[in-house]
């Protein structure tokens, strides 16, 4: 009981530490992306807190981005990973400054609609943005005339108000620092640039702070160098102070308006039909949160895919070639018994088959994991059941195959043991049959020698040839051992030694040439010698088979 309480306490502390160390939830931004008055087809939106990148998103659907996750700063680390609550987020489109419309402050775990316009919206960049017109920004959108057409103030060319311009510009960073530069079509004479020209910029007064929190001015180069190395800043951030004529319900003069430009600090009183509005600068369309689109496709031009397949094929070929080499080596090994050879070959084939099956399942699992999860991480929860199914099926399949091979191998081993027992019994039966045949022949030979000893002439030969007398005694002893079912190997070995000694005795050979009956007895002894050698081979096989049977019995007891 005490151990259970301690274990639960440790787990609780671990979970508390894990939860406490969990990083804060990000702010999820989404919205539209307009680049040069057209929906952006492609590109990357980066979110920054100061100079720290807190999130990024690559445009998939034309004109929209999201969800872009801007990470929060983890208080458990000493590094700055993201933003803190209430900090302002700046957005860049393909590393270029943009103007963001909406609440671009960081808030933990909140979805926020922020529309992004590129390039940076300010008067004097040489590009007529959709939020600008000939009245608000004559230098970008041409001057207005009575016919409704617009005339370029610098190049004296006339076009309608929806005419286009081209240019590029850049602004400074947070805190008013940085520099800018740009180029516009028209407004400067064309021709050969001088080899040296020192810019002399003259700037107008700053405009009033707009509702976007920006103020602008126009700077011109008196030398008309057509270079922008030292061009001053033409746009900067400012604090907008509301008034009673900006068509926005806001707060100023330490009091808040009750309606649009009425009530509160404004002299105009609000009518009973007016309703208060939120303090926003631009009415934004209501957009649904875009879902992240995931397009799955196998890129056959990806070298990583072919490298993976090449490694799998090489591993399979190497394992197969190695297995065939081992099997060939086992078949050529003449020192192994046939049963041992077949057992080792079966084991090598089993290992190769298991390796191939495991490699195949791992390849399929890796492909499915890459297709469903790595290509689309946001679909992990939708298809996580496939990963769980593979984690369950692969061990089960491998276990089933291994059990099948183990069962097949155990049956094979059992059959081999039965064959070995049968072989052992056959050897014992052959030795017993051989003993019966030899016992009859030895009895006849001993009887014949005994009868010949009654002949004085043969008796004299026996007395002069001690080998024959010794053979006769061994034959009698051998016959008695057969009757008592004792092992006759030692006596048979002595008889073989005596027969070899007689065969090498020259004087005995001379006696054989003159005595036909003695020669007949010696020929019978030579026949016995050959049969003894054959029976000795059976004894050797029986001894070897008995040792193997003992080893199999020990291994079976261990199992």
Description:
This protein is of the alpha+beta class and 559 residues long. Among the domains are: 22-118, Sandwich (Immunoglobulin-like); 304-375; 424-558, no CATH class. 46% of the residues lie in helices and 14% in strands. It contains 10 helices and 20 strands. It has helices at 2-20, 138-141, 303-332, 338-374, 380-452, 456-464, 466-484, 489-504, 506-513, 516-558; strands at residues 27-35, 38-39, 44-49, 52-58, 64-70, 90-93, 96-97, 99-102, 111-118, 143-144, 149-151, 158-160, 167-170, 181-184, 201-203, 214-216, 219-221, 235-237, 251-252, 255-256. The strands form 7 sheets. Strands 1, 2, 5, 8 and 9 form a 5-stranded mixed sheet that branches. A hairpin with a 6-residue loop joins strand 11 (149-151) and strand 12. The longest helix has 73 residues, at 380-452. The two termini are 38 Å apart. Mean pLDDT is 73; it is low at 1-21, 146-195 and 277-284.
């Amino acid at each position: 009981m005490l151990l259970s309480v301690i274990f639960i306490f440790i787990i609780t502390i671990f979970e508390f530490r894990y939860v406490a160390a969990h990083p804060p939830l990000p702010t999820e931004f989404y919205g539209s992306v307009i680049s040069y008055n057209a929906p952006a087809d492609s590109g990357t939106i980066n979110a920054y807190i100061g100079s720290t990148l807190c999130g990024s998103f690559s445009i998939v659907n034309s004109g929209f981005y999201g969800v872009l996750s801007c990470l929060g700063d983890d208080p458990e680390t000493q590094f700055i990973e993201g933003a803190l609550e209430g900090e302002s987020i700046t957005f860049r489109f393909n590393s270029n400054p943009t103007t963001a419309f909406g609440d671009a402050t960081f808030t933990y775990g909140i979805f926020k609609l922020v529309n992004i316009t590129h390039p940076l919206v300010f008067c004097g960049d040489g590009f007529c943005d959709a939020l600008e017109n000939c009245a608000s920004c004559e230098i970008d959108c041409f001057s207005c005339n009575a016919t409704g057409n617009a005339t370029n103030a610098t190049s004296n060319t006339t076009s309608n108000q929806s005419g286009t311009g081209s240019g590029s510009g850049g602004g400074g960073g947070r805190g008013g620092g940085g520099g800018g530069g740009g180029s516009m079509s028209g407004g400067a004479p064309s021709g050969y640039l001088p080899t040296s020209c020192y810019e002399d910029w003259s700037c107008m007064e700053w405009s009033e702070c707009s509702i976007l929190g920006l103020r602008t001015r126009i700077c011109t180069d008196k030398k008309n160098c057509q270079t922008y190395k030292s061009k001053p800043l033409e746009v900067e951030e400012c604090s907008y102070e509301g008034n009673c004529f900006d068509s926005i319900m806001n707060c100023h003069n330490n009091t808040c308006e009750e309606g649009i430009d009425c009530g509160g600090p404004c002299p105009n009183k609000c009518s009973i039909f007016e309703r208060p509005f939120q303090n926003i600068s631009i009415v934004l369309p209501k957009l649904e949160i875009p879902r992240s689109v995931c397009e799955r496709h196998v890129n056959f031009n990806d070298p990583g895919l072919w490298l993976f397949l090449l490694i799998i094929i090489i591993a399979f070929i190497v394992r197969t070639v190695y297995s065939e080499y081992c099997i060939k080596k086992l078949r050529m090994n003449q020192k192994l018994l046939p049963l041992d050879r077949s057992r080792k070959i079966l084991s090598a084939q089993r290992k190769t088959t298991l390796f191939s099956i495991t490699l195949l399942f791992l390849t399929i699992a890796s492909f499915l994991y890459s297709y469903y999860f790595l290509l689309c991480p946001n679909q992990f929860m939708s298809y996580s059941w496939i990963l769980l199914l593979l984690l369950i099926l692969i061990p089960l399949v491998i276990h089933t195959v291994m059990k099948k091979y183990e069962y097949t191998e155990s049956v094979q081993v059992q059959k081999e043991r039965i064959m070995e027992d049968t072989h052992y019994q056959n050897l014992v039966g052959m030795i017993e049959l051989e003993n019966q045949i030899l016992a009859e022949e030895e009895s006849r030979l001993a009887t014949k020698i005994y009868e010949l000893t009654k002949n004085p002439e043969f008796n004299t030969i026996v007395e002069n040839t001690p080998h024959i007398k010794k053979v006769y005694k061994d034959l009698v002893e051998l016959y008695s051992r057969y009757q008592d079912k004792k092992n006759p190997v030692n006596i048979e070995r002595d008889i073989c030694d005596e027969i070899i000694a007689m065969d090498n005795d020259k004087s005995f050979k001379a006696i054989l040439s003159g005595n036909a009956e003695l020669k007949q007895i010696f020929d019978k002894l030579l026949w016995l010698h050959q049969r003894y050698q054959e029976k000795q081979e059976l004894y050797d096989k029986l001894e070897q088979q008995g040792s193997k049977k003992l080893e199999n019995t020990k291994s079976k007891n261990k199992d």
